[in-house]
Each structure stands twice: as C-alpha cells, then as structure tokens.
Amino acid sequence: MQTRLTLEKPLKKDSNKEPKANLSENKRRYTLVDLFSGIGGFHNGFLETDRFDLKLAVDFNKECALFHQLNFPELPFEQMDVSKIEKAFYKKRNISDVDVLIGGPPCQGFSTIGARASSNQEKRLKYDIRNNLIGHFIEQVRILRPKYFLMENVRGLTTYKGGYFFTDVLEEFNSLKGYKVNYKILNAVDYGVPQNRQRTFVFGNRIGYDINDFPEPDHFENGANGNKYKTVQYAIGDLVGKEHNFPNHAPLVHGEINIQRYKLIPEGGRMPEDKLPPELYRKNFGSTFKRLHRDKPSLTMVPGHNAFPIHPILNRSLTVREAARIQTFSDDLIFVGNRQSQCIQVGNAVPPLFAKKWANHILNILDEYAQ
Questions:
Q1: Does residue 197 lie within any of the structural domains?
Q2: Cα angle: 262, vertex 265, 268; to 5 degrees
Q3: Structural domain of 198
C-alpha cells in the first residue's frame, strides 16, 4: 500500500486536531458514504473519530480524484457524476445498510417548474429541486435509506430567491418517508476552527430520534469554559519565513500595483477605497482585498481568482497551505492541480475539525439507538 506523503520536518503538529479518545474494543463501528466529497474534509473528520468505516466517497472533479489517489489511496473514492448512481451501483459494490450519508452538493443556478397559487410572483415559482445537485443528494438518501443523513451548503441557501427556494428544498427533504428533518446555520468558529465560516446544515434520521438537534458550540469569543476562539496567529503564525520550503506554500506573485494597494490595508481591515491615489484605484475590490487580523479568527476561506485574503503582516495573499491550516487540514496532505484548482479544493471543503464535531454528535445518537 502506498504510504502517506509527509513533510521531512513537519512544521507543526496537528494542533487543530483533538487527540483521539482511548476507545474500547467493544465500541460499535458505523458505515459512512460521502457524496460530492471534494477533497474529503467531511469524511476526514468522521474518520478521525476512529469509529466510522468509509464505504464510498464520490466526486466528479478530477483533481479531487488525484488528491485521494495521492493522499488516501486506501480509501474507496470514485470519480463520477452522482446523478448517475442507481441502486445497482451500490449493490455491485456490496454497499447496503448505510448508517450515515454525508455530502456537500455545490451551489448552482436553479431552474423553476410550474407554479403555485399566490399573488406574489416570487412565491408562485416552484423550483425544480429534483434536477438540481441538492436534489441528486436527496435521491441518494431515498436509494440508500441511511439511518442518518447530513448535508452541508452555503449560508445563503436559506435566503436564495427570498427563501422560497429553500422552502422547496425542505419540502423535498420532508418527502423522504420515515425521516425527521431539521436544519441549522452553524459557524465553524464556534467549534474550534480558526475561521468565521457560517454554513447551512440539513440533517435527518429515520431511527425515531425526536430531538434531532445539532452539536453544541464548544468555543466562545469570551473564552467561556476556557475555550476561546482560535485565531489566525494560532493557525499560521509559525509559517512566516518558511515559504517555498514545502508543498503548497508558494506565495502568489503579485504585481507591483497590487502590492502597493496591500500596503494600505490595515490589519483586520479592508481596502480604504476613498483614500486611494488615482493610480491605485479600480472599480471593484473583492474579498481578496481584505487583510486578516492575527488575534482574531479568519474570514471565510472563499477562493477568489487564485487568491485568498491578505496575510495579517505580509503584503501578499495567503498561500494554499495557510488556507489549509485555517481550514484545519493537516500539513501532510498535498493539494494537486494548478493554483486556482488548489484554492477551490481547499476553500470549498468542510473543515475536518468541524466535521469531527458533527461526527461525535451523530455517534451519540447512533449509540443511543443501538441500545
């Protein structure tokens, strides 16, 4: 079996990861399937509990496939279109009686079908959920009938098209026979991730668990219970001066005009557009013209055009490795493809530490059911 690539001299222990508990041998194990997996941040967190067996991870992206071949050759990853998966696909792979199905179908444009009775034009629209990537995830819930499912998506899912699209999404989820469905917007920073990252989670079970809640936050801005928000300095402070020393830590080569712009951005602030000299002005300054603050959690890692936000003290954008640290990926993982692809892979992933908090929460539910 191919061994995991590791740094010759790891720059940092996986301090974003929590130590595994000493599990007794009689602890029950559960099966897991991850659809729209990307580079696997979601299932990475579940596997960190050492109580899940990944039966399948699927994504259509070729770089995500290459990432798994390089970093996790032992895991059952398949590059394919989730919409093409039918019952026979799982049967051929001896996948049945799945305990947990997870996934993060990407956002995309949404079409409409028919209309409903309403004087409100927006409300009259009926969205075509089944032919959407979210709909394809729901269809796999129908096929696999997992005991528990969990879908991650952007925060804006709940407000898109005035919230009427999400109403149709929930209607489709609630059409799943026997499932109790709920949703919640959670922020990764509340769970030990050094990043403000609000995401919508839709989750459900068919095992009669009526509470159907979500993981309780365990990190707080005021440091309640001794767990204060993790900061950018905590995540990447030790990487300064070590650029080019290991994979995925090569800074983007910025033009001189952008460097001059970056110099004007205060720590924790954004471009002061009203104070720019004419030669530095441009029409639009996006999220890549915001500088992080060392003593605060990061902004959301959303990749711009090959770039993340500005480093707290250096006049450049974050490297892919720095973004991966903020996303709580370990240093031994190597990201493949061109820079833009690497940024997308890292920026779109569920932070493994956040996923682990969900995994432990779901374990508590499944263990209670097993009794």
A1: yes
A2: 125
A3: 30-216+351-370
